[in-house]
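job 3f2a | input accepted
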Amino acid sequence: MSFIKFENVKFVYPNGYSAVENISFEIEQGENIAIVGQNGAGKTTTVKMINGLLKPTEGKVIVAGMDTKDFTTAALSRKAGYVFQNPDDQIFHNTVEKEIQFGAEVLKMSESKIKEMVEYSARLTGLTEVLDENPYNLPLSVRKFVTVASIIAMDTDIVILDEPTAGQDIRGIRLLENILKELTAKGKTIVTITHDMEFVVNNFDKVFVMAHKNLLKITNPKEVFSDDKLLEESMLMKPYISEIVSELGLPGKITSRSELVEYVKRAKMG
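job 3f2a | predicted structure (270 res):
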């Protein structure tokens, strides 16, 4: 049984703007999914329907066996945690520790469980040394990890990340990659919206390509970036590794740094 299921879903905002038109897909528990596409493709509207911030105008969204139309956003947030693109829309407390523990307190976890989850989330996101700091005294890139930690501390089955690499340097991106690996190893279902194609090829096995308010294709990164027609229709750029490989005239569909490193190693041995 699918963990997340969209059945012929359409969403129209109150002003009449149609953001998503007749999309259907399924996500299994424990999958690590990237959703890509240009602005206006319907990505954010789609993920907001997963955690109940929005309810479909037509069709069904089923999350962990629950039809989202029948449950409150509060009830659905116990299953799906959503990290906003802008952390300042999501931070309300005057210390990092209070911010991280807030969601767990709302879920009425025990004190010992809250302490455990705060310590775990802070360690995983590199925030252990700044727990007493006011989040707004920290750089934007670090504040983004405060909101990530807050959702991790809620221990939801589903974690939604909206443009997590935006504003991050290479250290921040590597930290995000480690977080994804850790959460996936724990069986969490990860849904990530991103414009960062390098992040996609290095961290995801399945990609949802959206354009024109529809889902164009579900496939793996290698197939996405070798399909010129799909790239043109969705207005996506190839990862820089693919561009380098093409300029060097190297054979094969190399899209990630790990594949390029492996190719160079084999070439040296040969």
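job 3f2a | The radius of gyration is 19 Å.
job 3f2a | closed
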